[in-house]
Design a protein that fits this description.
Layout (H helix, E strand, L loop, with lengths): L1 E8 L3 H12 L4 E4 L13 E2 L1 H10 L3 H6 L5 E3 L1 E5 L5 E5 L13 E3 L2 H13 L4 E4 L6 E4 L5 E4 L5 E10 L6 H5 L10 E10 L10 E4 L8 E6 L4 E9 H6 L4 H11 L11 E12 L8 E2 L2 E3 L15 H21 L4 H28 L3 H13 L1 H10 L3 H4 L5 H9 L1
Helix pairs in contact: 1-4, 1-8, 2-8, 8-9, 10-11
This protein binds flavin-adenine dinucleotide.
Flavin-adenine dinucleotide binds next to helix 1, strand 12, strand 16 and helix 8.
Protein name: Geranylgeranyl reductase family
Pfam family, one: FAD_binding_3
GO molecular function, one term: FAD binding
Length: about 400
């Protein structure tokens, strides 16, 4: 049985980032994962500019180090395909120059990206990494803190502070922190790897297709190194049950028969199976800490409700959790009241954009408006530039909320 001040449960992007920031502050931690790395994680594998920023915050040389990875494909933008079939191409940076600019995003299998982070962790003497250790239950200790139990109910670890970063199916989040899985704020997702998909973008733009007969769900094709592609679908769980959608059947139906996909997949080969996993969305503010614990990443439901992006938000929460640990150890205060500093810091950074994405998610209820925006923007360079800048400029993105934005668009 191990005793520690700080234990991090889960070594995905949230947990690994917290461990690295703690190490930077000279604080030791125990990082526990049931998997042995490298390990797969069902995901779209798209890493936004926010991920690159978070890598830089861990260490200024990390973005450059990651860009040298064979398994990371630079991506320069997104193609949105509207319900009416309008293609709106939005570069992450307007007028980008591939030879000079650093890429704003990457696509890299999580098998590789998460292992890249774990390789950084392994270089830090402050972090003790335990792989292949599954935590099955939790008990509160009389003196404060938690005992982490194995499958045989044996106590494995005792810790004063627990950073819960064990993903979308976290038993701690559900049973100890009481975070309910609400279908209105939860998305179901499927992912498959293919080779031989035709018509992938030369600059590795990722593709988001909003097909009329699959709304409010979306279909994606994200190019990967070696001519492979990450292909998947996502749909709000409330819509899945209301419409009784069989996601796997729908995904294969679209690949086999949708006019926009059929030709492109005619020589494509499915590699491995089609795997599913949940996306706890951050479209609702929740309590993400309590006596002696904090919830990070998916365990705290922090995924962007419009884009499905969760890696960067997990890393951001990991960074703020490390800061809170520092404060707690200094003050020797691990109480619910003191922990609120963590909730405040995370939502201060993320709530504005999560709320906006919730509103954009609702745009999918108005497919005709989506078509109109896409159609106008594909012909109007100023509008296309504005939308492109919205990726980096939240104030600009706010305009999408204003009816005047759409009125001007419709009558210009
Ligand atoms: C289909 C799909 C597509 C997605 N596409 C994207 C995308 O393109 N871009 C993006 O940014 N995000 C995407 N996301 C979201 C993203 O995958 C998550 O937000 C991200 O993985 C959250 O990181 P995390 O560190 O919180 O948790 P995770 O990455 O889930 O890591 C949790 C870790 O905890 C470990 N663990 C779990 N239970 C235990 C236990 N009992 N004991 C010990 N260890 C345990 C696991 O082995 C794992 O290593 C997608 C999600 C899905 C499902």
């Amino acid at each position: 049985m191990l005793k520690t001040d700080v234990c991090i449960l889960g070594a995905g992007p949230g947990g690994a980032t917290a461990a690295l920031h703690l190490a930077n502050k000279g604080i030791s931690s125990l990082l526990v994962d049931k998997a042995v790395f490298p390990r797969d994680k069902v995901c779209g594998d798209a890493l936004s500019g926010k991920v690159v920023n978070e890598l830089r915050r861990i260490s200024p040389d990390l973005p450059q180090l990651f860009s040298q990875e064979q398994e990371a494909l630079p991506s320069w933008g997104i193609h949105f395909i509207s319900p009416g079939g309008e293609k709106l191409s939005v570069p992450f940076k307007y007028n980008y120059q591939k030879a000079q600019d650093a890429p704003a995003g990457y696509i890299s299998k999580r098998l590789h990206f998460d292992n890249f982070l774990i390789e950084q962790v392994k270089q830090r003497s402050e972090v003790r990494l335990l792989e292949g250790v599954e935590v099955a239950a939790f008990e509160r200790l009389p003196e404060g803190g938690f005992a982490l139990l194995g499958k045989d109910s044996q106590s494995l670890i005792q810790t004063k502070l627990l950073l819960v970063a064990n993903g979308a199916q976290s038993a701690f989040s559900r049973h100890v922190a009481n975070l309910q899985q609400e279908p209105e704020h939860y998305c179901a997702g499927l992912r498959a790897y293919y080779k031989g998909v035709e018509g992938l973008d030369g600059d590795n733009f990722i593709e988001l297709h909003f097909f009329k007969d699959f709304l409010p769900g979306y279909f994606w094709i994200f190019p990967l190194p070696n001519g492979h592609a990450n292909v998947g679908v996502g749909m709000l769980s409330s819509a899945v049950s209301k419409k009784k959608v069989n996601l796997k059947k729908e995904m294969l139906r679209m690949i086999e028969s949708h006019p926009a996909l059929q030709q492109r997949f005619r020589n494509a080969e499915l590699l491995g199976g089609i795997k599913g996993y949940g996306l706890p969305l951050g479209s609702k503010k929740r309590r993400i800490s309590g006596d002696n614990y904090m919830l990070l990443g998916d365990a705290g439901a922090l995924i962007d409700p419009f884009t499905g992006e969760g890696v960067s938000n997990a890393m951001i929460s990991g960074r703020w959790a490390a800061e809170q640990v520092f404060q707690c150890l200094q003050a020797q205060d691990f109480s619910t009241a003191f922990m609120q500093g963590y909730d405040k810091a995370v939502y201060n950074r993320l709530w504005k954009e999560l709320k906006l994405s919730r509103q954009m998610q609702r745009l999918l209820n108005y497919p005709w408006l989506f078509d109109k925006v896409a159609s106008k923007a594909s012909k109007n360079t100023v509008l296309a530039e504005t939308i492109s800048c919205m990726f980096n400029d939240l104030d600009l993105r706010e305009r999408l909320k204003q009816p005047s934005f759409y009125l001007k668009l419709l009558f210009n």
